[in-house]
C-alpha cells in the first residue's frame, strides 16, 4: 500500500510513499569536481512549506527535464531518501534521489480531486532596477 505523506514524515526507512510537492528552484545541471558525474539539484516544497532537495543524476536529468518545471505541482513516489552529503547546504534532514523506479507525475490544472498547490508567500521575488546614475540604451 502506498501512503501520501508530507516531506517531514519521509525518512530513509519509509517505504512505498507519495508526496505532493511544488518545484520552487531549478538551477542548471552541473558536473562533479572530477567531471565524471552530471547531476542536478532541485528544491521542492509541500503545502506546509517544508522543503527538500531532490537530486537527479546522468540520464535521469534528461528523462525528467521536460516534466520538472518551476512552480508546477507534482506527485513524487518512492525516490531514494538519504542523508545529505556533508559538503552540501541541507534544506532538510534528508534529500531525495530520483532514479529509474521513481514516479514523477505532474498534477494538472483541471484535476479537481487533487488540486495544484498554491504559490508560496515565501518564494523570494527580486526586483531589478537601475542604480542611481545608470543609463539605458
UniProtKB/TrEMBL annotation:
It comes from Nicotiana sylvestris. SUPFAM superfamilies: Nucleic acid-binding proteins. InterPro entries: NA-bd_OB-fold. This is Uncharacterized protein LOC104220262. Gene3D superfamilies: Nucleic acid-binding proteins (2.40.50.140).
